[in-house]
Design brief:
The chain is α/β, with parallel strands linked by helices. The protein is built from 6 helices and 7 strands, in the order H-H-E-E-E-H-E-H-E-E-E-H-H. About 25% of the residues lie in helices and about 35% in strands. Strands 1, 2, 3, 4, 5, 6 and 7 form a 7-stranded mixed beta sheet that branches. The N terminus and C terminus are likely disordered.
Length: about 210
C-alpha cells in the first residue's frame, strides 16, 4: 500500500471508508494523485471557472457544528465553516501571481460569504503548481497571513491562505495558517492524525 492509498482509505477517526463517487479524473498525473489525498474531505471539481479564470482543480468543504442539550431536537450554537480550494498551474510564478490571487480571494469573500450569526469561518486557499519555486515566492508565501473579522467577529471571519508547490523540485511552501501544503507534497508521507484528516478532526471538536 502506498502513502497515498493509506491516506485515502481512512477517515478522521481512523476508520476505513469507501471511495467517494463522482470524483473527476485529471489528465495531469500529479493532480490526479493529489485528488486521492483530498477526495475524502473536499467535493472536487475539474476545470472550475471563476471570474473568467479556469482552475484545473477546485475543492469545497462545508462543516456544520452545533451543541446538543439532551436530545438532538434541542440543539443550539449552530456554526458553519467553509473552505474553498483553488489549484492553478503557473510554470514560473512571481509574487505578483499571488498578490492577484489574494485580491481574487477578497473579491470572492464579498460575494460568497454569508455573514450572519451562524457563520463561523470561510477559508479561501489558493495553490499554484509550478515548475520552480523562486526564493522571493517562498518568502512571500511563507510569511503570508490574511484574516478578516466580520462585524468585529460577531459574524465570524474569513481567511486567505497560499500554497506554492514545485513537484519536480520536491519543494513546497504554505502560508502561516495552513497545513494543506502537506497534501501537495506527494514525496512525503502523511502521518495520522497530524495530517489533513487530523486537522479536520480538531476543527470538528472545537
Amino acid at each position: 500500500m502506498t502513502d497515498d492509498e493509506e491516506f485515502a482509505t481512512v477517515d478522521a477517526e481512523g476508520n476505513v471508508v469507501d471511495t467517494p463517487e463522482n470524483v473527476p479524473d485529471w489528465d495531469d498525473e500529479y493532480l490526479d494523485r493529489v485528488s486521492d489525498r483530498l477526495m475524502f474531505n473536499y467535493d472536487l471539481e475539474r476545470d472550475h471557472v471563476v471570474r473568467g479564470e479556469t482552475f484545473p482543480m477546485y475543492g469545497e468543504l462545508q462543516i456544520q457544528r452545533h451543541k446538543q442539550f439532551f436530545h438532538p431536537a434541542l440543539s443550539y450554537g449552530h456554526h458553519e465553516s467553509f473552505e474553498h480550494l483553488f489549484v492553478a498551474t503557473e510554470p514560473h510564478p512571481t509574487v505578483a501571481t499571488f498578490e492577484r490571487l489574494v485580491d481574487l480571494g477578497h473579491d470572492l469573500a464579498d460575494e460568497w460569504v454569508a455573514a450572519d450569526e451562524e457563520h463561523y469561518s470561510t477559508e479561501f486557499i489558493f495553490c499554484v503548481v509550478a515548475d520552480e519555486l523562486p526564493e522571493e515566492v517562498r518568502s512571500f508565501v511563507g510569511g503570508f497571513r490574511d484574516r478578516t473579522l466580520l462585524k468585529y467577529g460577531y459574524n465570524g471571519h474569513y481567511e486567505i491562505h497560499l500554497v506554492c508547490v514545485a513537484p519536480d523540485e520536491e519543494a513546497v511552501v504554505g502560508s502561516k495558517e495552513t497545513t494543506l501544503d502537506r497534501a501537495f507534497a506527494l514525496w512525503d508521507p502523511i502521518d495520522e492524525p497530524s495530517g489533513l484528516l487530523g486537522r479536520l478532526k480538531r476543527r470538528l471538536l472545537e
